[in-house]
Amino acid sequence: MDQVNDSVVTEFVLLGLAKSLEMKIFLFLFFSLFYIGIIVGNFFVVFTVYFDPHLHSPMYILLANLSLIDLGLSSTTVPRMISDLFTDCKVISFHSCMTQMFFIHVMGGVEMVLLIAMAYDRYTAICKPLHYQTIMNFKMCMLLVVAAWVIGMIHALSQFIFVINLPFCGPSDVGSFYCDFPRVIKLACMDSYRLEFVVTANSGFISLGTFFFLSASYIFILVTVRQHSSSDLSKAFFTLSAHISVVVMFFTPCIFLYVWPFPTKSLDTFFAIVDFVVTPILNPAIYTLRNKDMKSAIRRLYIYRAESM
Length: 309
Fold this sequence. Notes:
Elements: E1 11-13, H1 21-51, H2 58-75, H3 78-84, E2 91-93, H4 94-127, H5 132-135, H6 138-163, H7 181-185, H8 193-228, H9 233-258, H10 265-289, H11 292-308
Antiparallel strand pairs: 1-2
Helix pairs in contact: 1-2, 1-3, 1-10, 2-4, 2-6, 2-10, 4-6, 4-8, 4-9, 6-8, 8-9, 9-10
């Protein structure tokens, strides 16, 4: 990377989240508790899906992968957020900043595709139940997971290759508590308008388009169910409500951060915290508390553990 970029700037300055000691202590406890919850909750989902044979189906394999991505996305920023709270000089090296941006967009891209795959899985299960086992078999599930990682890597690399070659000679204030492509591009010593538009199109419009596509797909599923049997509509809506909640929580911050034309620092910080701290802990909670199969699996694990003691 040293050979790729000969920038004068070797480190970037990050934004502090709080000034008063009381607020720093509050945020430290808040982030620490939530991050522990993210680790425990998401690993618990993965553990439950892996060890319970009843959950070895495409939907839960995709859910386990979503939990791993949520854990990875949160781990790119939250540990540093916690460590920077009581640090006077909040700086991040050029290499660390580039690495953080890259993995944020890899994880974000993978999660986007996984949510589409989960929507397709629900569409097949609800609208084509007789063909579900044929369409959503193990091979198709693995193909969707691999495709998610490939698309996530392409999504991140398509921006990273341009940003890593930009000249940075000052200023070095990112204006946020983490590094991200739009903010770092603005610090380049060149006219970056076109590149900023490309990044916005890559991250923002893709997020917006995917959100509308997923929303339309869930509406289509509910309309299809209602046409066949109005009595099954409430059941289908209850099944899809967890997926809809996760989609809304994931895409709302993304759309605001990359598409909203009138950003403010306070709202930008709020939505970024929601994306990195709140959503990754709510996802496992939503899927475990609102899913009968997951609750049954948890009870089986509890009974098995009690009998083995």
